UniProtKB/TrEMBL annotation:
Domain of life, per lineage: Bacteria
Signal sequence annotation: none
Native species: Streptomyces abyssalis
Listed SUPFAM superfamilies: Glyoxalase/Bleomycin resistance protein/Dihydroxybiphenyl dioxygenase
Stretches of the chain forming a coiled coil according to its record: none
Name assigned to this protein: YycE-like C-terminal domain-containing protein
Residue ranges of domain YycE-like C-terminal in the record: 85-134
Cited Pfam families: YycE-like_C
Length: 155
């Protein structure tokens, strides 16, 4: 089992230059506007409806080494709200800037997993009903707040 802070081996010579995670959506136009205008993710590519019949939008997280793509669904797409997009921020102040933008646009925080509640996350639902989690710590760099609070005092 790999524990937090450890990594399993990556094959030598298999260098990955970038990563993109894609998601089909039912409410494409509303979802593009939500992630671009409300959340504030930088839109790095917006594809017109092409020969395959669907549009796509690619957002930087925040640059292009890691991107998030929305693809217009041509038929109804099953939605599991727990298909989360988690944005890890460096502290509560940064998390709160984005949370404030989202609430000022009329979106209320959603019920969330206890894990996110215990780790100071704030969860919203995107236009398709999937979770967007804002966390005030960086996975793999910082211990989650729950661990910090339960750690024995130093000394």
């Amino acid at each position: 089992m790999v524990r937090m802070g450890e990594t399993s081996g990556w094959p030598d010579g298999l260098a990955v230059g970038a990563t993109r995670v894609g998601r089909r959506c039912n409410r494409y136009g509303e979802s593009v506007a939500f992630y671009r205008d409300v959340v504030g993710l930088p839109l790095v590519y917006l594809g017109e409806t092409g020969p395959d019949g669907f549009g796509c939008a690619v957002f930087g997280l925040p640059g292009t080494p890691a991107t998030f793509e929305l693809v217009e669904g041509l038929e109804p797409v099953p939605v599991d709200r727990h298909e989360e997009l988690v944005l890890y921020f460096r502290g509560e102040a940064a998390r709160d800037v984005v949370a404030r933008r989202i609430t000022e646009a009329g979106h209320e925080p959603a019920h969330q997993y206890r894990y996110w509640e215990l780790n100071d996350g704030i969860t919203f639902l995107d236009p398709d009903g999937r979770e967007l989690v804002l966390a005030p710590w960086v996975f793999g760099e910082d211990p989650p707040p729950m661990r910090k609070r339960s750690a024995p005092p130093a000394g």
